[in-house]
Design goal:
DNA polymerase, domain 1, Rossmann fold, two-stranded parallel sheet, alpha/beta, 2 domains
Length: about 250
């Protein structure tokens, strides 16, 4: 075979191999078919802390931390006692506890103002662009939160990102709370997918452990640099921002 024929054959084989590789790449499915977010990787709660500090200068951060901790503890306790209360009521009760524990004079107007902020939360600045990128990559998106349906719907609508989510799910509809397995099951039932096909994206370490225990692959967006929980179930990945999630997904 002369040199001209060899060059022609090499070019032809190269084209065939290139086309085959491209076709294989295009045919490779996403690692996940859907990504389901907890509420707080999406909703920015920092303004609540700012207002708390304005009411109690020098003590707002400590009050916010104690309030947040009791907020979820009261949800779990009410469920365990078979005395379910929704996210709003648990938020009110935990704020009352936290202010009493710190000896602070919380007026009715202050409490209504702070709790009411959950009805109009905005989203973190990096959220809209990241959601668009995820959808452009072919991922179905959802939200699964302990917040009430009204909180979720109002916040997403006001921020202009409602259309990004195929399903917005509140555990209030089944009078339960994460990390109960029946709460995580909501997304499986709505998306008609296996848990292994859904990447769960929590805000809290306990939610990351709960989702992983349930069977979800889990990426923890740890926006507040919280320590990892020691519950025997570590997330598959972790980062601080939505850009870290995008990089993890490649």
């Amino acid at each position: 075979m002369d040199d001209a024929k060899r060059r022609t054959l090499a070019v032809g084989l190269g084209a065939i191999l290139s086309a085959t590789a491209s076709a294989g790449k295009a045919a490779t499915p996403n690692r996940y078919k859907a990504a389901v977010f907890d509420g707080f990787p999406i909703f920015d709660v920092r303004p609540i802390g700012v207002r708390t500090e304005s009411y109690f200068p020098g003590k707002g951060a400590a009050l916010t931390l104690l309030w947040r901790t009791r907020q979820f503890e009261y949800q779990w306790l009410s469920s365990l006692m078979n005395r379910y209360v929704d996210f709003t009521k648990a938020t009110e009760q935990s704020l009352d506890f936290a202010s009493n524990a710190m000896g602070l004079s919380l007026t009715t107007e202050m409490r209504d103002s702070l709790v009411g902020m959950y009805q109009s939360l905005g989203v973190w600045p990096d959220v809209p662009g990241a959601l668009k990128t995820l959808r452009d990559r072919g991922l179905r998106l959802g939200m699964l939160s302990n917040m009430t349906q009204n909180m979720l719907d109002r916040g997403l609508s006001a921020s202009g990102v409602s259309s990004s989510f195929e399903h917005v799910l509140s555990t209030d509809t089944i009078r339960s709370y994460k990390p109960s397995p029946i709460s995580y099951q909501l997304a499986v039932d709505q998306f008609h997918l296996q848990p292994s096909e859904i990447l769960f994206v929590p805000f809290a370490g306990w939610d990351a452990a709960g989702a992983k225990s349930f069977g979800y692959p889990t990426y923890w967006i740890n926006r507040i640099d919280a320590p990892a929980e020691v519950l025997g179930y570590a997330p598959d990945g972790a980062g601080k921002q939505m850009s870290d999630l995008l990089a993890y997904l490649g």
